[in-house]
Amino acid sequence: MSMAVEKQRWELLDPAIDPADPDEYLRAALRWHFDERTGSPFWLRRAKRLDFDPMRDVHTFADLRMFPNVVDELRTVPVEDLIPRGYGPKAPAPRVFESGGTTGAPKRAILMPDWIEAAVDRMVRGPQFAGREPGNILVFTPTGPHKIGCMYDYIVERQNTIKFCVDMDPRWVKKLVSRGLTDEVEAYVEHLLDQAEHIMSTQRVGLLVTTPPMLRACTRRPRLTELINSKVELIFWGGAHLTVDERFELQHEFFPDVRMLSRYGSLMILESAGERPGLSQDDDIIYDPRSPVVTFQVVEPATGEPVGHGQRGQVVMNHVSKGMFLPNNLERDTAIRVAGLPGQVGDSVSAPAPVDTFDGEKVIEGVY
């Protein structure tokens, strides 16, 4: 194959481009990840244990179910082995993020610099920043190794604003919850609220990024609730889950002066799904993934077969990009299966909720 043809093929995987032909995009991604010259050491080793040839036998996104779910292996694999060789012998350093440890030891994923740049472009063009001037951001979420808080480092750099954050360790909270140490959990939450209230009372903040457990905790403090209503233009929430009734109560009883917006996802898809526009506050939020890079399927976990539209099942997530390939990941969430938007590969979802146990581990959401 000529160098020109190869270059054109890899251009299909540019993270800044929205792929026009999903199947062509998938073929290019499979060749990238399973060719000895371009694939990551992790996937090239893993391919030897597959009973099929990904480049020959996988033709559609439905075929991704042929792959084993490898995300548990991301708890221990050296992150250097996740970098595709196609980035060159001196590949740019990735940003390494970790999962919250909800289902055991944390898993690690990498975001390559080209992915981060494109993802930040999409964020600043998205509904989170539409219709208002950029302002300072309080990230009231886990930071450290967690993607949910750290991506705002790039946002404030791009917008020439300021990011404030609290020192939050969700894994410690999960340990306290698992041991039944309710008083210690409450004391730690108060410690987090103290930090947030100090920032809100002394600084200008236009965007509050947080999780449902912490947003509910804020409502226990009238002064903090008042500060949020008087200063913040948008509450952007994610991580854990809110029901329609919980969302209505937070919006109308506690934060009537602040717009609320959310996204749904997992570290294992690198970029979460946005809210479908046009729904009322009485509706469950519908989340549409960025297909075909991220695709969802809602299945009956015992069989792996899709449930009917409007039915609840467990969510399978696929991430297919130049920097990472994570297919057939049965997540710890159930959700209602919703028909995707025209041209979308796979399902959309609504009303996500955690399962009680996952791989024999009790699922604990904690503050995140």
* Structural class designation: alpha/beta
Q: What number is the mean pLDDT? A: 93
Give the number of helices: 11
The biggest beta sheet reads: 11 strands, mixed
In terms of DSSP E residues, the strand content is 15-25%
- Radius of gyration, in Å, reads 21 Å
Unreliable residue stretches: none
Envelope shape: globular
The largest sheet has its strands arranged as 4-3-5-6-7-8-9-13-12-11-10
Helix content: 25-40%
First CA to last CA: what distance?
Answer: 48 Å
Q: SSE order in H/E notation?
A: HHHHEEHEHEHHEHHEHEEEEEEEEE
Number of strands: 15
Describe the protein's architecture and organization.
GO terms for molecular function: ligase activity. The chain has 368 residues and is α/β, with parallel strands linked by helices. The protein is built from eleven helices and 15 strands. It has an eleven-stranded mixed β-sheet, sandwiched between helices. The protein has a two-stranded antiparallel sheet with strand order 1-2. Strands 14-15 form a two-stranded antiparallel sheet. Strand 11 (312-320) and strand 12 (325-338) form a beta hairpin. Helix 5 (113-125) packs across helix 6. The longest helix is centred in the middle third of the chain and has 21 residues, at 182-202. The protein is globular. The model has no long low-confidence stretch (mean pLDDT 93).
